[in-house]
Design brief:
The chain has 305 residues and is an alpha+beta fold. It folds into 3 domains: 81 residues, Arc Repressor Mutant, subunit A; 85 residues, Periplasmic binding protein-like II (D-Maltodextrin-Binding Protein, domain 2); 105 residues, Periplasmic binding protein-like II (D-Maltodextrin-Binding Protein, domain 2). It is 40% helix and 24% strand. The chain contains 10 helices and 16 strands. The strands form 5 sheets. A 6-stranded mixed β-sheet has the order 4-3-5-15-6-16, covered by helices on one side. The radius of gyration is 24 Å and the shape is elongated. The N and C termini lie far apart (47 Å).
Length: 305
């Protein structure tokens, strides 16, 4: 039994709650993960995991052992990094999940710089506005805007998205140009709703000016749960949008969208990098997060926290 491989297999099973997911994360077979954990238990003469056909649960002894193993693996990685050339030590796979507009407009165009600096990091980029199961899907980190739904995750605030309200010229020709947020409640107007994935509810929008606070209310002819589709709906003239300015400004410059309600402010949207608790933040993950912070700092409408 390779003890290092066995320890890695055990920690991944605990973190994902599944032998299958652990095997996928380690790029080995289910049989290999099962045998490694069984050999580890036989060597320790302790039951580390309760297995049923439906789930895998860590035992009390297994939980205590897991906490110590995580620290050992972290120390080993830090030792390797300390003795190696810093850039050469940054290798292996990173699984990251980011919102689709941020990926398309900001991160993916900047990735040639990341790959040039760190050619041995294999980046697996999940692009979705849906909140993934960071632990269950064995994702190293997620980048998300707004309040985090999962309070158990570790999070670092990496920016604040400047927000604005917009509509297409064709929409304004039909419905008129609102001068106050309450005008959007008129029958002539429509909003495009953004659906929160977990609840299926439309995300509220509140605006402020000179001590006055108004919630945007109105009819939603359409609601979507994807940022790119949300923007496309506004460009098609289907209703009024509230989007981060980095998404809207290129279309404003081309005359495809117009900013509405001058003088009114929408609260900035916090932007977080979140990752599983207890898991060691590897050198390559720290490097990626720092690179993301640098990329975001170059965006005019993304303020550093």
């Amino acid at each position: 039994m390779d003890r290092f491989d066995a320890l890695q297999a055990f920690t991944r099973v605990v973190e994902t709650g599944s032998f299958t997911k652990a095997a996928r994360a380690l790029d080995v077979s289910n049989t290999t993960v099962t045998q490694l954990v069984q050999q580890l238990e036989a060597r320790l003469r302790v039951k580390l995991l309760h297995r049923t056909t439906r789930q895998v649960r860590v035992t009390e002894d297994g939980a205590a052992y897991y906490e110590r193993v995580v620290r050992v693996l972290a120390d080993l990685e830090d030792a390797d990094t300390g003795l190696s050339n810093a850039a050469a030590a940054l290798r292996g796979r990173l699984r990251v999940d980011v919102p689709s507009p941020l990926a398309r407009l900001v991160l993916v165009p900047a990735l040639p710089d990341f790959q040039a600096r760190y050619p041995d990091i294999e980046l697996h980029l999940g692009v979705s506005d849906r909140m993934v199961d960071v632990i269950g899907d064995d994702v190293d980190c997620v980048l998300r805007g707004g309040d985090l739904a999962d309070s158990t995750l570790m999070a670092r605030r990496v920016g604040d998205l400047s927000m604005g309200v917009y509509a297409a010229p064709a929409y304004l020709e039909r419905s008129g140009n609102p001068t106050h947020p309450r005008d959007l409640a008129d029958d002539a107007h429509r909003l495009v709703g953004y659906l929160r994935w977990r609840s299926g509810r439309i995300a509220p929008v509140t605006m402020h000016r000179d001590g006055e606070t108004v919630a945007l209310h109105g009819r939603h002819a359409l609601a979507v749960d994807d940022g790119n589709a949300y923007l496309a709906a506004g460009l098609a003239g289907l209703g009024v949008l509230c989007v981060p300015r980095y998404m809207a400004e290129p279309h404003v410059a081309r005359g495809e969208l117009r900013p509405l309600l001058p003088g009114w402010q929408v609260e900035p949207m916090p932007l977080y990098v979140a990752f599983p608790p207890h898991r060691h933040v590897s050198a390559k993950l720290r490097t990626f997060i720092d690179w993301v912070v640098g990329v975001l700092a170059q965006q005019a409408h993304i303020a550093r926290p």
